[in-house]
Amino acid sequence: MAATEEQHEQALNKFLDERPELRHELDNLNPLLAQAKGETAAQYRDERLHEAFEAEAERQGLFAWELTLQLTVPTLEDYQKQRMEVHKEVAQMAGMDWLEYCDLYGLTP
């Protein structure tokens, strides 16, 4: 079960709450940069937030959806369970053998 859009929004909010310096930076972006990209200030800010979130996930060796789960599920057990469910779904969609997939991504089946 992949993270929902609502979960992702919750994760982004928690991510920002834990990083007041990033929130300050995002709240004070130059509006001309957004205009130069043909975006509204809100769209430009949202893009920067998503970039920071994905960079943090990568820094931790996670996919962004894994960081979303990590920030939104109540327990580590729930995180591990949901994480493995999503990985199984991805393996099935890719038509990969589960053990081969686990080996590729360093997962313990």
TrEMBL record:
InterPro entries the record matches: DUF6388
Pfam family, one: DUF6388
Protein name per the record: DNA repair protein
